[in-house]
Amino acid sequence: MKIDAVECFPLKIAPKQIYLGGDGGETGVPDYYYRDEYRCVYSRKMETCLVKVTTDTGLHGWGEALAPVVPQVPAILIEELLAPLLIGASPFDSNVLWSRMYDAMRDRGHVTGFMLDALAACDIALWDLKGKAAGLPVAALLGGAYRSRQPAYVSGLPLPTLDERLDLASDWKAKGFHAIKAALGYGVDEDVDNIRRLRERLGPEVALFLDAHWNYSVAEASELAKRLEPLGLGFLEAPLLPEDVRGHAALRAKTTIPIALGETERTRFQFAAFLDADGVDIVQPDVGRVGITETMRIGFQAETRNLAIAPHLSVGLGPCIAASIHVAAALPNTFMLEYQPPVFDIANTLLRDPLVCRQGHYEIPRAPGLGIEIDENQIRELGRKS
């Protein structure tokens, strides 16, 4: 069985609500805008790049690059640079193909960013293919699932006022979700007040995680953590700029709140810097940026330091979510997997049978490969409109 074709589908889907909050129905404005609070460019649409890899037997697998902006970029990289390396190869040689794709641009310094997103999409598709060929779900190919359901936490409370966010958190608790992540970045005093009120509303039985979106200095983050420690928090994510390895190590030494990071990193080589510096407690690679092969390596790398992994999962629209569930279930040191309700709902509109997350857990797909079936007619139609 040899790879015969590689096809990309960069998609841009207009949602009713913009990711992380906001009206999606606004017209006459650019797709991309700068969010001051996160110092980052976002899209008003749900964007992603799906990849279909087909063999000479007709069997195919689906992958996805996490591409929340300009998904046509990883599509071009796949079509022009990576597809020629895959065509004619066996999908069972996924480790070899990962290395060939990574090495293809390594000496030019393209060892992160869009190039690795493109690689991740291809890698996920190869695992989907292997699972379908073997008649086994990806988690089984990875060595088996350590748990029958994958614990999940609700990520974000994307409403404009604190009272609305508190009510939304209470609604999730009533639905059986006992782990919730809230956004920081309003300043130390306001952050502390907001999280204290959230803890008072939810009580001690709900785990609270915090995402600071790289907003603080070491001194500010240390002060924030010191004041938040009495609230019993599960982790503090992205407190400092992602390049600041030494700063994360210094912060970790000053607080008992576990430090989580990793959505910006793409390889075990990049995570090694944080591990060697003792700068992280929970690693958060994103399968849509890292791929299945490398996420497993990172998970085992963390395990050697007795650290947990909690894969990042934001705007993946189908294959990325399914791949994340399989990887999370197949690693012994998985803490929890992120759950983005608005994104999850849109993703399910692209699938013939929906993925399931309820009462605080993902159901692990049982069908061969990723265990999902893409509505290809809809994907092609969306691709024409994007």
Entry keywords:
3-stranded antiparallel β-sheet; 386 residues; Enolase-like, domain 1; alpha/beta; 10-stranded mixed β-sheet; 2 domains; TIM Barrel
Structure description:
The strands form 3 sheets. Strands 6, 7, 8, 9, 10, 11, 12, 13, 14 and 15 form a 10-stranded mixed sheet that branches. The protein has a 3-stranded antiparallel sheet with strand order 1-4-5, sandwiched between helices. Strands 2-3 form a two-stranded antiparallel ribbon. The chain folds into 2 domains: 143 residues, Enolase-like, domain 1; 224 residues, Alpha-Beta Barrel (TIM Barrel). The longest helix is centred in the N-terminal third of the chain and has 22 residues. It has 386 residues and is α/β, with parallel strands linked by helices. The protein has 14 helices and 15 strands. Helix 7 runs parallel beside helix 8. InterPro entries: Enolase-like_C_sf, Enolase-like_N, Enolase_C-like, Mandelate_racemase_C, Mandelate_racemase_N_dom, RHMD-like. Its cofactor is Mg(2+). One of its GO terms (molecular function) is magnesium ion binding.
